[in-house]
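Reopening: structure tokens for the adenosine-5'-triphosphate complex, inputs below.
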Amino acid sequence: MTSPTDVRGAKPAVSLRRLVRRYGALTALDGLDLEVPRGAFFALVGRNGAGKTTTFRIVAGLSEADEGTVRILGHVLDSGAGRTAVRARIGLVPDFCPLFEPLTVRENALCLGRFRGLGPRTAGERLEELAGALGAEGTLDRVVTGLSRGQRKQAALIVAMLHAPEMLLLDEPFSGLDPISARSIRALLEELRRRGVTVFMTSHTLPLVERVATHVAILEAGRLLETGTLGEMLGDASCLEERVVSALGAGRPLPELAWYAP
Ligand code: ATP
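Re-run output (same inputs, fresh job):
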């Protein structure tokens, strides 16, 4: 499979070289090489335990690799200065809720907006506009503790976008969302893609990935199995799910379960 071409002809937004990450005796990333072109909507897919979240956390600066090089938006992520420079230019929605639980969504947004140099009026206006796009107006003045999983995900995405970051990092952006919210988020992300925002996400929701991604990478056992543009990855397959399942090998046959006879 070809390596992904840079959709803007610039240096890659993310470049990972020979990444190794160990958890005790377990090697979660085993020499991973990966490039995310600028302006791409890049989806990292693969089996449970393949190393997607580990990769995501390293790209997001939430965790460090034991070996290898991480370059994000031109900065090497091995120095404090590199991390600080990158942090202001990315929006992050990890697999946990990154908001302060005892505050409302609006209070979270105003705090983070201030941290990112946005005045309360600008942050408030952007918040209302984004919440309107996602149908999340009703949650803005509720404390995070009382929000459902999907509501938290929406709120985290809204807050992550307030400073108009040039790259969004999204861990499982569609999990836990109802079909209407998933559709709204998809439409919002498609609009951002048209504006040249780079999106790097992990996902198991392959039908949605197929609708929004420009590039896909399949991870297997901490290594890159395949990567390419969506068209290259699809090839002759009828859908991305078929393609990914065939790349990873078919599922196991069901056991007899003769004892399970309620
Ligand atoms: P999933 O699709 O299930 O979310 P994933 O591809 O995101 O999986 P990771 O969470 O990156 O996989 O995990 C990769 C491997 O590292 C797995 O074998 C996992 O058990 C292991 N692992 C991840 N985090 C830790 C940890 N904190 N301590 C020990 N092992 C870990």
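The chain has two domains: 5-89+166-247, 99-165. Confidence is low (pLDDT under 50) at residues 1-8. Marking as resolved unless the reporter disagrees.
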